[in-house]
Structure formats: structure tokens, C-alpha cells
């Protein structure tokens, strides 16, 4: 009888150890399949970023196409009109400083001219310097250049880019009046602004 009890007791102990070992194995096996499903759900969230980048790439060529180098015919006509209204600036004898009336002449419509030229950086103007007939040709060439530079400095001061303003001196070679008196000489001591012809 004692031997049969021992056998039963060992049998029960063996079953409990085997059962405990099986329970541990079942509990460890299920967790590994869960992690792969999480990254698969996260990938669709990154797709909406692609449509946002496409419009930015399309807008760049449109901006480049809207920047012509030279103004069209209507804008060039407006520039010529403004230049005609900006009267010649006149100077005292043997002087190149701008008088108050010369400043007023340059001031007229120069702000609109500045705004137009800012849109067409390749479009340029020429500021011509002129003198009366008195003095040598060499002296008047230098004086005409100084007068043109004084006008350029003023226009750059109101915002017209310096590289869009070219200087030229004609000295006494291109008078608008050929009488030999002060009234005529005053008309010849001037600066005159013209648009440079552009090859289209």
C-alpha cells in the first residue's frame, strides 16, 4: 500500500512539472506576430506630402516666363512720354551743379519712370551732357560729362538703378540753338535723357 501511494505521488509531481513547462511555452509563443502590422499602417500617412511638392515645382517656370528683358511697345511708348515730360535740366555758365529749376525738371515723373525701369533691368537710358559754344572742345566735353553725371546722381538717388543709366557728353557739338547770345547759350547748357534703342 505504501508503495502504491509513492507511485501516485511521483506521478502527480511529474504531471505538475510537465504542466508548468507547457504553460510557459504557450505564453511565450504568441507575441512575435504583432510588431510587423504597425509599420504597415504608418506608410499611407506619408503619401499626402507628395501632392504638396508638385505645385511648387510647376510655379517656378511660370515666374521665369513672366520676366521679359525689355518692355513691350505700349510700355516703351509710356517711357518715351515720361522722358518727354521730364524737361531738360539747365545749368549756369561754366557750372555742372544742379540748380533748383533743374532739380524740378528731373523730379517730374521720375518716380513712375523708376517703377517701370525696375521691371526691366536690361532696359537702359542715356543721359546726354551739353554745353554752349564758348570754350575749347576738350573743356566742354569734360563739362558736359560732369553735367550728365550730376543728373545721373540725382536719378540714382530717387531709386533708378545706376547700371540702367549711361552717360555721354556731346560738349558743344549738338546745340539746340545757334544764335550767339546768352538766351541761346542758356538753352544749350543742359542735360537731355533718351532711351537707348534696343535690338528686338
| Secondary structure tally, helices | 8
CATH fold-type name of the domain at 73-195: 60s Ribosomal Protein L30, Chain: A
Order of helices and strands: HHHHEHHEHEHE
For the biggest sheet, the summary is: 4 strands, mixed
Radius of gyration: 45 Å
**Overall shape:** elongated
Please give the order of strands in the largest beta sheet: 1-4-2-3
Residue share in helices? 40-55%
Instruction: State the fourth-level CATH superfamily of the domain at 73-195.
Output: OmpA-like domain
- The CATH architecture category of the domain at 73-195 equals 2-Layer Sandwich
Q: Briefly, what CATH class of the domain at 73-195?
A: Alpha Beta
- Which consecutive residue ranges, at least 5 long each, have pLDDT under 50? 21-28, 38-46
Average pLDDT confidence is 78
Strand content: 5-15%
Write structural notes for this entry.
It contains eight helices and four strands. It has 200 residues and is of the alpha+beta class. The chain has a domain at 73-195: OmpA-like domain (60s Ribosomal Protein L30, Chain: A, 2-Layer Sandwich). A four-stranded mixed beta sheet has the order 1-4-2-3. The model is unreliable at 21-28 and 38-46 (pLDDT under 50).
